């Protein structure tokens, strides 16, 4: 991500400069994060790309290698960063992240508490949501993971609005300095019910909490504890199905005698797509579910602090 100017919105309109982080895009499932450094080069199956050729180009540019191959230089948005970051732990993906930010009602200026940090996938999106005047305080009990997360936040330019601390939230709770100050809290813990009483003290009146758990037994136990201080308790499972849409030629499909197949019935042709007349060899747009669609990731349990 680009460095954040406190007087402006987060923006990716500037040109690429030395030291910037860019996403090298070959296709939707082949991307890599690279720090631009004049004098270095990037090499892949399409050839060699000189970093010096990238400097001064706007994000989104199509650049060519010495062999004529090309890639796109994209801005490291939280969505793309989620797809290329190092997986130190299981991460949250875009469908869950967007739902969390909406249901936690996170807007610019919010103070958000998160535990644990993990690979920092959600944290980066939280940072963009609260920018430029809000702040995200994220905690992880594992010191090495916390250190790696800090380095990643520096690379993506959100370190000015993200503070990473090493702390066992399940055992110690959140620091007392945040008592009554947090707008929203996110928990990604093995035993979230242990941290819920502390979270209730940190939230502002009518503040929101979300707990992410892979197992329904964790959800049940968390809900039992939530009922003491929270209301509007809801649990969701987000399932995302992606599709591949591409153009194909029907005459590419032949039978065992190497003959073109018979035309499908008129009704079926209409369902498949729009052809030029009845010519079966004309290009047709086909759509099919992606073979790499993810299934269950976890359960998202939301609750709102009671106003006493």
Automatic annotation (TrEMBL):
Entry-linked InterPro entries: SAM-dependent_MTases_sf, TRM61_C, tRNA_MeTrfase_Gcd14
Q: What SUPFAM superfamilies does the record tag this protein with?
A: S-adenosyl-L-methionine-dependent methyltransferases
Question: Subcellular localization, per the record?
Answer: Nucleus
GO terms (molecular function) for this protein are: tRNA (adenine(58)-N1)-methyltransferase activity
Q: Which residues form a coiled coil?
A: none
Q: Which UniProt keywords apply?
A: Methyltransferase, Nucleus, S-adenosyl-L-methionine, Transferase, tRNA processing
User: Where does this protein hold S-adenosyl-L-methionine?
Assistant: 119-122, 140, 168, 188
Positions of the UniProt region annotated as Disordered: 254-292
Domain spans labelled tRNA (adenine(58)-N(1))-methyltransferase catalytic subunit TRM61 C-terminal: 69-304
Q: Supply the enzyme class, top level.
A: transferase
Enzyme nomenclature, EC number: 2.1.1.220
Pfam families for the chain = GCD14
Per the record, what is one GO cellular component?
A: tRNA (m1A) methyltransferase complex
Which reaction(s) does its UniProt entry say it catalyses? adenosine(58) in tRNA + S-adenosyl-L-methionine = N(1)-methyladenosine(58) in tRNA + S-adenosyl-L-homocysteine + H(+)
Q: Provide the GO biological process annotations.
A: tRNA methylation
PANTHER family assigned: TRNA (ADENINE(58)-N(1))-METHYLTRANSFERASE, TRNA (ADENINE(58)-N(1))-METHYLTRANSFERASE CATALYTIC SUBUNIT TRMT61A
- Give the family, as the similarity comment puts it: Belongs to the class I-like SAM-binding methyltransferase superfamily. TRM61 family.
Please report the name of this protein according to its UniProt entry. tRNA (adenine(58)-N(1))-methyltransferase
